[in-house]
Amino acid sequence: MIGDEKILFSGMQATGNLTLGNYLGALKNWVSLADEYTTFYCVVDEHSITVRQDPAELRKRARNLLMLYIAAGIDPEKNCIYYQSHVSGHAELAWILNCFTYMGELQRMTQFKDKSAKHADNINAGLFTYPVLMAADILLYQADVVPVGKDQQQHLEITRDIAQRFNSIYGDVFTIPEGYYGKAGARIMSLQDPDKKMSKSDENTNGSIYLMDDPDTIMRKFKRAVTDSVGSIAYNEEQAGIRNLIDIYCACTDKTPEEVVREFDGKGYGEFKPAVGEAVVSRLKPLQDEFHRLEKEKGYIDSIIKNNAEKASYYSNKTLRKVQKKIGFPERIR
Ligand code: TRP
Q1: DSSP string of 295-332?
Q2: Which of 134, 89, 96, 90 is nearest to 112 (CA)?
Q3: ∠ CA 52-110-97 to the nearest 5 degrees?
Q4: Under DSSP, is residue 21 helix (H, G, I), strand (E, B) or coil?
Q5: pLDDT tens track for 83-110
Q6: Are 239 and 227 in contact (CB under 8 A)?
Q7: ∠42-48-54 over CA atoms, to 5°?
Q8: Is residue 285 flagged as an active site residue?
């Protein structure tokens, strides 16, 4: 706890362009949680290099992601928005925690199994110890809560296991974090395959709405969205495409599925699809405008980057020094 508030930590990778799914499922929640907690929102660029990256591209995406956090409504003066690579404690604590994590535990991680199948030519040790770096991220700030998607639940569990193991040897060093999985229903599916989650790494770009898509692109993608031959707007399992469109419409307009079904009673898909497109366009507009404004505020963004890296370093160093002392590293001479 810092002051009276509990601590929240979360991070996103700067690979691929953020989608509407990332926004409605994660970023939007982060904005509302910011009032309640002392927050650290990290751009986890060190995690990104577990798969090969183009340097210029990585640098640009990392900055864009940081600006998107701000454009989405997270106040960077009150919330610590920063780059993982600017705070050396992440890598330092990860090394230490590596020595408290078992090969067998890491071998069980489903994300490691999936990613090594996908990048069979580059199964590097970083890909294997990815969850340990994530544990270091979280434990460095003594985080109480960690909002993540279901796909990260296993990583959060190993974080708790590592922390508990460490604490059982050295005393109460780490806060044991809880996952925060948000509300159900915020899971947005691909517009081209409603059985698959909307993903920033999807090769079929028509399936995903990117946060920076212009209005014409958004409208076109919605008009092409895969539906069914039933022809009526109902919220059920069989009409997965329409259900997804209803979910998106609800998330953008704060309506309930029942209200939407009533609103479009007797109307066809030809009318519903563009309505969803328009709701998304107007929901994203303020964020896009703000992003474009921030792109021009280079000095301001640079100052945020610098100040927040200092703030994050201050808090993370407190934990790191304590850990180093507990495990018996020699004291620093001042
Ligand atoms: N692994 C997370 C993901 O891909 C990103 C991440 C890295 C993270 N470190 C974190 C999320 C710490 C929460 C807390 O989604």
Answers
A1: HH-HHHHHHHHHHHHHHHHHHHHHHHHHHHHHHTPPPP
A2: 134
A3: 75
A4: helix
A5: 999 999 999 999 999 999 999 999 999 9
A6: yes
A7: 125
A8: no
Between CA 156 and CA 235 the distance in angstroms is 33
Q: Which residues pair with 12 in a beta bridge?
A: 43
- Compute the distance from residue 21 Cα to the ligand 1 centre, in Å: 16
Mind listing the pLDDT tens digit for each residue in 152-181?
Answer: 999 999 999 999 999 999 999 999 999 998
> Which domains are assigned to the chain?
6-180+298-327 (3.40.50.620), 205-293 (1.10.240.10)
Ligand 1 within 6 A of CB of 227: no
Q: Return the C-alpha torsion angle 15, 186, 312, 327, nearest 10.
A: -90
Nearest CA to ligand 1 atom 14: 10
Distance 181 CA to ligand 1 centre (A): 13
Q: Catalytic annotation on 118?
A: no
Give burial (CB, 10 Å; 0-12/13-18/19+) of 16.
Answer: middle
Which of 113, 150, 196, 197 is flagged as catalytic? 197
237: helix, strand or coil? coil
Parallel/antiparallel/unpaired status of strands 38-43 and 145-147: unpaired
| Distance in Å, CA 267 to ligand 1 centroid | 42
- Find out whether 58 and 19 touch, Cβ atoms under 8 Å: no
Contact 145, 8 (CB under 8 A): yes
**Is-contact 97 139, C-beta < 8 A?**
yes
Looking at residue 92, its amino acid is: E
200 is catalytic: yes
pTM for the model stands at: 0.93
Amino acid letter, residue 8: L
Helix (H) or strand (E) holding 29: helix 28-33
